[in-house]
Write a structure and sequence with these properties.
Elements lengths: L1 H27 L3 H4 L7 E2 L13 E4 L8 E7 L8 E7 L18 E5 L9 E3 L1 E7 L4 E10 L5 E8 L6 E11 L6 E10 L8
Antiparallel strand pairs: 1-10, 2-3, 3-9, 4-8, 4-10, 5-6, 5-9, 7-8, 10-11
Length: 202
């Protein structure tokens, strides 16, 4: 009888351990788009991906490792622009912090383009009033002189970017301030393949 009780306790303990492990793994594999929707923390994606509702398109020119003339065209569809937008916040990965031989962004070479074609390589620009570069938080805050109208497709063009030394899939997260709001709202994430080309491919 005692032996049966011991076996029962052992099986119950085993089941609890299994449930705990299962829960831990399901949390570990949560899609970054969902995990970051309430946070500005940048990320490097290893597992999973951004929820399709929050996935944003992009194009990168000169996308070779260490290229100091890379251009990132970060696209925002018109259906994401529910109301006019006056502020844009982009959080970027640790790989783009300033360090020797590392990747860098140039806050003085950022443009907002509307009515663009060719993936954002041209189009009308909305004048930028100022750009605040928060290096401690890995964040760019872009303030436009004019409101980006509702239902407008636009592109954030990051120019003169220096790519990292190695290939990687990096997440750039977008928050905006809609007219009438007092807090920026998470809109989506660009999962950018950085340094994806090789010189002999060009």
């Amino acid at each position: 009888m005692a032996s049966n009780r011991t076996k029962a306790r052992f099986l119950a303990s085993l089941m609890c351990s299994g449930l705990a492990i299962s829960g831990a793994w399901s949390g570990f594999f949560t899609a970054p788009g969902q995990a970051q929707s309430g946070s500005t923390a940048p990320g490097f994606t290893i597992f999973g991906g951004v929820d399709p509702d929050f996935r944003l398109g992009y194009i990168v020119d000169n996308n070779t490792p260490r290229n100091s003339d890379a251009r990132y065209y970060l696209q925002v569809d018109s259906n994401k622009v529910e109301r006019g937008i006056s502020e844009i916040e982009i959080s970027y990965p640790e790989a783009f912090t300033r360090r020797p031989n590392g990747a860098t962004l140039d806050p003085e070479n950022i443009e907002i383009r509307v009515n663009s074609s060719r993936g954002g390589r041209n189009g009308e620009t909305i004048p930028i009033e100022s750009v605040t570069w928060d290096r401690e938080s890995n964040r760019l805050e872009i303030y436009t002189q004019e409101v980006i109208p509702a239902d407008t497709e636009f592109v954030v063009a990051l120019l003169d970017v220096r790519n990292p030394r190695r290939y990687g899939l990096h997440s750039f997260n977008l928050r905006v301030l809609y007219q009438g709001d007092v807090v920026r709202r998470y809109i989506g994430t660009w999962q950018v393949e950085v340094a994806a080309e090789r010189p002999w491919q060009r």
